[in-house]
TrEMBL record:
Keywords: ATP-binding, Nucleotide-binding. It holds the Pfam family AAA_24. It comes from Diplocloster modestus. It comes from the Bacteria. GO terms for molecular function: ATP binding. This is ATP-binding protein.
Length: 213
């Protein structure tokens, strides 16, 4: 079973930058936002010529790439999909002329299946999805931050439920951090993985901490 992680946060909160210390030789980066990465020198690390970078927002193509990397490229240990919202929005725009409830069910199923399938791959693989966030208020008036989704169908099935680790990227007093446990958010992590509520924004350290889970 692969390890599947979600890094959620507002734009500019450090989601992409947290990937800066991954080894490009064992990492494949899927840029679903098609915006490039956010640190100096990334073009030398990730590119089509290096065979470790894909700019694509078609969920079916991304799903096939992940499957191929997981089954046929054992040297790849980490796959990053940045962001899952890029896939959702692109699917929604491609089907913008379609009417009816079935469209939203299909869109939800497409993303849900992508995340569910990610868990089925080899044990030495980590798949990281980044996601934008939205603020919601429940029926009791509780305000919290969660993964932003397209349509109410994905809200109802709760995308966070498919991850054992959901970290909230944020900037506090100019310092970029990950929130590891719920604090007015849907952030969560395995018991005992992180002692602190907030940790350094570095996905490599997160992967190391989760190695035993």
């Amino acid at each position: 079973m692969a390890r599947v992680i979600c890094i959620m946060g507002d734009s500019g909160s450090g989601k992409t930058t947290s990937m800066r210390n991954l080894d490009p030789k064992t990492t494949y980066y899927i840029d679903a936002d098609k915006k490039g990465l956010s640190w100096k020198g990334w073009r030398n690390q990730y590119s089509e010529n290096n065979k470790n970078y894909l700019r694509n927002d078609d969920t079916n193509i991304v799903r096939n790439y992940i499957r191929k990397l997981a089954t046929s490229c054992p040297k790849i240990k980490v796959i990053v999909v940045d962001t899952i919202n890029g896939l959702m929005i692109a699917d929604e725009m491609r089907r913008s002329k379609e009417k009816g409830y079935d469209k939203w069910t299909d869109l939800a199923a497409c993303v849900w299946d992508l995340v569910c399938e990610a868990h089925e791959y080899r044990d030495d693989l980590t798949i990281i999805f980044t996601a934008h966030t939205q603020v919601e208020r429940d029926d009791s008036g509780y305000v919290f931050t969660r993964i932003k989704t397209s349509g109410k169908k994905l809200d109802k099935i709760v995308l966070e439920s498919k991850f054992t680790t959901v970290l909230l990227a944020k900037c506090v007093d100019g310092k970029y951090l990950f929130e590891t446990h719920a604090n007015s958010s849907t952030a969560k992590s395995p018991m005992g993985a992180f002692e602190e509520q907030e940790i350094e924004n570095d996905i490599v350290k997160v992967i190391d901490a989760l190695a035993e889970f």
